[in-house]
Design goal:
about 70% helix; 12 helices; ABC transporter involved in vitamin B12 uptake, BtuC; disordered N terminus
Length: about 300
């Protein structure tokens, strides 16, 4: 293999991998954006992601329909989100502590209920072969795009527009920026945050369905690898902007695809270090966006991490 072909193979693999790997990041980050825009943080989305992956896979195995699995994962994620939202509105309850508790609860429940479904095979989600015009298998593989990625891309545009141009979006923003102002306008802040947290859970559950039903396309206890927690850092990096979440998700996805891309062209020495790229990127972003002297730019005023 020539050096030129090797370089192009790596680039194609990174592009295709970025699309595949970014989809869970995209759904979880969009869900967390909705939640945090309302003034609440949910660190429990890692557990929601894992439970969504398990419930989607189990449903697809039993029903034979991957879309039924996506629907059940969304419902399960919504239930976790509503539980988080309800508990957080109780007196003297900390959002972060409850999120961590639900993260452990969701992951543990998924591992317990999902043991019978580690071996069975579930039908995968469909993908659209945008590389049909090429005879090169590398191009065809890179441009084979799952439907949920396209849904997530469209959703990021819709949420960006909705936060600026719809009454519901403006209400969520007001609740997140100033609870007193929202109450003065006659809105129930607790209810707004409850619904926003539930909606965020739905999207996180769907992100989990993608993991188990498309990429990597199986159910096991290590399926998430901390993507739910990394998505929180992604939201901060994107400054709570749904469109920026789309770009940041692709960046994280490309970082996650770098190791497999190098392995595909025969780079065997030290390639495993590149598998740590998403975690290094997360740490770097958290350091670069932190400051002891000022609140995060663009952060909702009521968000606990901005105070």
């Amino acid at each position: 293999m020539s050096d030129g072909l090797g370089i192009w193979t790596v680039l194609l693999a990174v592009v295709g991998g970025a699309i595949r790997v970014s989809t869970p990041f995209l759904f979880v980050s969009l869900g967390e954006t909705i939640t945090e825009r309302s003034g609440r943080i949910n660190l429990g989305l890692e557990g929601t992601l894992v439970f969504g992956a398990m419930s989607a896979y189990a449903t697809a195995v039993m029903s034979g329909s991957p879309w039924a699995g996506v629907a059940v994962a969304g419902l399960a994620g919504g239930a976790f989100g509503l539980l988080h939202g309800y508990v957080c509105q109780l007196p003297r309850v900390n959002d972060v502590a409850i999120g961590i508790a639900l993260m452990l609860f969701g992951s543990g429940l998924a591992f317990f209920l999902g043991k019978p479904f580690i071996q069975p095979s579930a039908p995968p989600l469909p993908a659209i072969p945008f590389g049909f015009w090429s005879d090169l298998p590398q191009v065809q593989a890179a441009l084979r795009v799952n439907v949920l990625f396209l849904v997530g891309a469209a959703l990021s545009v819709f949420l960006w527009w909705a936060f600026r141009n719809t009454k519901a979006g403006l209400i969520v923003r007001v609740a997140g920026d100033s609870a007193d102002a929202a109450r003065a306008m006659g809105y129930d802040v607790d209810r707004i945050r409850l619904y926003a947290t539930g909606a965020g859970g739905v999207l996180a559950g769907i992100g989990g369905a993608y993991l188990s039903l498309y990429y990597p396309g199986s159910w096991n206890e290590g399926i998430s690898s901390g993507q739910g927690l990394m998505a929180v850092a992604l939201v901060i990096f994107a400054r709570w902007n749904p469109l920026a979440c789309f770009g940041a998700a692709l960046l994280f996805g490309g970082a996650g695809a770098l190791g497999p891309a190098l392995q595909s062209v025969g780079v065997s020495q030290g390639y495993y270090l590149y598998y740590a790229a998403p975690y290094v990127l997360t740490l770097a972003l958290l350091i670069l966006t932190s400051s002891p002297n000022r609140a995060l730019a663009g952060a909702p005023g009521e968000l606990s991490l901005s105070k």
